[in-house]
Every structure is written in C-alpha cells, then in structure tokens.
Amino acid sequence: MKLGVVGLPNVGKSTLFNAITNAGAQAANYPFCTIEPNVGVVPVPDERLDFLSDMYSPEKYTPALLEFVDIAGLVRGASKGEGLGNKFLSHIREVDAILHVVRCFDDENIIHVDGSIDPARDIETISTELILADIETVEKRREKAVKMLRNGEKKFEVEAETAEKVIAHLNEGKPARTCDLNEEEAAAMADWFLLTSKPVLYAANIAEDQIGAEDNDYVKAVKRCAEAENAQVLVISAQIEEEISQLPDDEKAMFLEDMGITESGVSRLAKLGYKLLGLISFLTAGPKEVRAWTITQGTKAPQAAGKIHSDFERGFIRAEIVSFEDLKREGSIAACKDKGLYRSEGKDYVMQDGDVTLFRFNV
Length: 363
Prior knowledge:
three-stranded mixed beta sheet, 19% strand, single chain, alpha/beta
C-alpha cells in the first residue's frame, strides 16, 4: 500500500521523506528538485510486536510495512501540464492515499513559489489542480456512458448519473471523497481512480523552535481546512525528524526526551498512515518469528491466512485466536486457554486488529 507525499515546491516534502525512510532523497531550495518519484519502505512501529518479541525471543522480527512515494512539487496549472504537472499527477494516481505536506514556518532563506506563506491558499492550489484533473477524467467517463446509453446499453445508466453527480460536486471545489454517493454509485466511481477520491492526511510542517508550543496561525489554518473535509492533521517538524533519523538508535530516545517529545513524528505518521489506508494487523508469534501481517479492515480468516501462503487459504480449517490485550494481561497462551480466552474461529470470522493467530489448514 502506497502513500504519496505531495505539496507545493519547497514545503519540506523531500526533507520529510528523508526522515521517513532515511533514503537520502535529494532536497534543495528550488522547484522540481524531485522529478522521478523516490520510493521508500518503512516499518510501522508496533509496541505489541515488542511485547511478543520479549515473550518469545524469536529468531526474526518482522513489522508491518508502508511504502512512501515522494512526488515532485505541484504548481498552479499542473492539471494543464504546468511544471511537468501531467507526469506528476500520474504518479499521484498510482498511490492509495495522499500525505499532503503544508509549509507552516517562516524562513526568508527558503523561497516560496507564491512569494509568501499561506497554508490555506497552498492547500487550495493543490486541491484545485487535483479537482480539475478529476473533472476532465469524469467528463470523459460521462461522455462514454451517455454514448453507450444511446446505443441501448442500459447498464451504463448508473455510471452516467453518477458522473453528473460527481462533476457537480467537483465544480463546487469539493473533492470526490466527500461526495454523498450510495453503494451502487460509489462502486461506479471506484473504477475511475480519481485523485480526489483518495484519503488525505495533512502534515503541517513547523519550524524546530515550534516543537511543543501552541499551534501557530499557520497550523490553525491547516486544521480548519482539514476539518472541512473530515481529514486528519499531523503537526511535525521535517527538519527535526530528519535530524532524529540520522542519529544512532541508542541516542534517539535521549534526543526525544531532551525535546520533550514522547514519540517521534515519523512514528506517529506511520501509524496514522496505516489507519488512513484502512489497514489493520493480525500477529503471529513463536520462537522462529514474531510478525505483523497487513490486511484491510473486514478481511475474513481464510483470506488473512492467504496473506501467509496461498495453501493456508486453500486448505483453511480454522483460526486459533487470542486477542493481544488478553495475551498481554494473562502473560501466556496457556493461561489464556485456562481462562477460555483462546478460541477457534471458522471461515466467516472477520479478523480484528491485534488478533494473535495460528491457522490450521490441510492441503
């Protein structure tokens, strides 16, 4: 699952990406520094795995992973090809969700493409370009659906009606993800892969000296914009996070403590990104390995088993499960069994976040 890191040029995208992945993406004080998207895969911090690791002392420790894609800075007119915009918009189309970095700090040494710092304007610039690109996409789908209807293809009626509804919504300057659609309409829109249908997390990038302080006016502006579309905001200092990422592991905790921070921004970002994508983890544990397996919310047990190996799904018999919280409280699988907390679930069981699971199968 991919999170695309987007924003205007010089807002701190590549700096934050460096901190997220420690991948050394190029960061410089001029537009379009990032042309081809950089890609980094990062672990999702999970205290539950740490607990299971202490319990089993496994040979291998495998957390869930998220993929971040650093996409070049968009500018006004991107939907019409400005600033190589069409190419960059195609990169956004390939991700599952968007991390929108917004500049919330003053620094006369770092130029802003519009000459001043205004988070609400910057968010509107990006949103407008994505909306304009989506309008063009939906209009093409509408034209095709209407043509097919005229040819007697009644099955395109829902698509044509949905397109009309979505275009009207987009023309009001609203993203497709906030359009009120019924189940049938939502299914039709899902096939269009619209840019503004993707969930968004705003990263309000603040200066180092703003860490731990009250929200500045820039951050407040970001939060107002996010609230209007039911999006979340993460307040983060990309510069600080990059510095933390370059420290040895044994010095990171000390640095965070000195800064008065309990958890790094990157750690919070990974967790929020995971939730944003509608993902959960089930856990497997033993002397060989403790591991978090990524599934979407609503996944049933056989399909979860298939994440481990296709044979597990094909020959699924049952899932033996204990919730992590029960296991942590009782201290062992044996104790959970004694208290009736260790249970057997069949093929219709919907997996829950934190299920510590053993699959039984036969092929």
